[in-house]
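Query protein
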Amino acid sequence: MIDFNELPKENLYYKDDWCVIYLGDCQKLLPSLPKVDLILTDPPYGINFVPQREFSKQKFGDIPIANDELQGDKWLEWFHPINELMFDRLKDDSVAYYYSGFNPYYYYYYYSMLKVGFTIKANLIWIKENFGMGYHFRRQYEQILVGFKGEPPTPEKPISDVIFCNKVPSKTIVHSCQKPEDLNRRLILQYTKQGDLILDPFMGSGTTLVASKNLGRKTIGIEISKEYCDIAIKRLAQSVMVI
């Protein structure tokens, strides 16, 4: 099991027995980090996201998602070097989960993952309990690409590639694109064991860290926004292990 005291100190923002948080640009920080057993992350989708629901506008209207304004080839030019670093930091015979939205930029993710050396094993579909806002179609699902580096062990209980899971309730949401802890928990359980090390280089409000800590896994999170780092720390303080 990794000793967090041996990790680089530069840009280290928070540390407890189960999680560390680095404040900064993941492209600069990833090369100095140790190899990990799993990557679970939710990078910017390249859609210049603007909240449409009124409560979201009130909560998050002034908090942009870093680098989400990049479009098309510019997004790929930004993301691909980071993806190369993520692939390098992942141990052999391990798995990476990338939330990839429901938009054309899914194909940029797909291209980049293949280019760096991943085998695309699955495209998980997360079905939400109700549809969202939209001008033409009101989407009710998001995609999660599953990349294999080598040949990971076969899980004891394979899950469906269509996952039904409720969104985070409006009353408790703390990030405009926050993912449910229960959904991340299911993904983590498939390919890790207690004490394994998980990486989330686009940490946001810390859902991956909270889910991992509650399952007895260690996690390294990286986030470029100080505000979201502080939110993640508060969530970690409130988490309770449910192993």
